[in-house]
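Notes taken during the Thursday session

The instructor put the following on the board and asked us to keep it in front of us for the whole hour. The protein is SWIM-type domain-containing protein. We were told not to look anything up and to reason only from what is written here. First, the residues (310 in total):
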Amino acid sequence: MSRKNTPRTTWEGNVILADFGARRRAEAVTPRPSIPIPADPLGPESWAGAQLLEAVAGATDRGRLERGRDYHWGGHVQSMELSTNTVVALVAGTQPQPFEVVIKVAALSAKRRDFIAAEVAAAPALLRTIIRGDAPPTDLAAMLLRPDQIRFEGCTCPDGAPVCKHAVAVAYQLADTFNHDPAAILQWRGVEAAEALRSVQLSHAGEQESSSTQPNSGSSAQQAPEVLDQAEFWGSEERRVSWSAPPVESGLELGDRDALMRALRSLSWTSVDQLQTMHELELCLEMITDDSGRFDPTPWARPVTGTRMK
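Then, after some discussion, the predicted structure tokens were revealed:
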């Protein structure tokens, strides 16, 4: 068996020391498939926050992702400083001193920053979409933030993985920042939109004040339901609808009589039994409809034609 990839083992007293560093580095550069992102129970997820979590999920393994999420929930991120396209954070770990994590995003060109600023200034509805945390139009979203634009620059911890649990915790913390303030993505990307944001916020405040001062006619209408006039709804008693009784129809004279006779024939021994059964059905119908004398009282007295006796 080949020992080419076997870790080198040395002995120190009763302790075995094995160097697994080569294998760890080889695994670190292997592309990993995207894994499901654990849900954050602290609040609704914004579009920008989802992009960050998608980037970190595609760059690390499930174990580091779950431990980093627990670090975020446990308050291990001691501080986080945002500047244009960069975030620097300190995360408490297993050592006395916190570890420093740096995450960056590819910078926008001046032309693209001006384009995004002009778009949000000209379209208040677009800015409201971003403020709600929803995704902007595809072309604008592709410029603002994509998972492939996010770079995990490193962490001062001894973990040799490209994205350690401390970097995951910072990514969750940054995503939580965007969840609570979705418009912060514009400032982080260097887009000047302060004036447009102020205008939209003032407009929203004016709408709320206007709606609070106006009487709520809808609620009063619900509290006092409309009372209908019965005479108007049902009509006057002088104009009652009347109709004559419908004519009585014989059920035996409707439908396919030949089919009825064939059915009776399957239950009768002779043609006389068949006629007797038919006569009893006619008597039942006369009793129900109170229409006596409708049928021949002795149908078997007539000569039977077209039927042979068995």
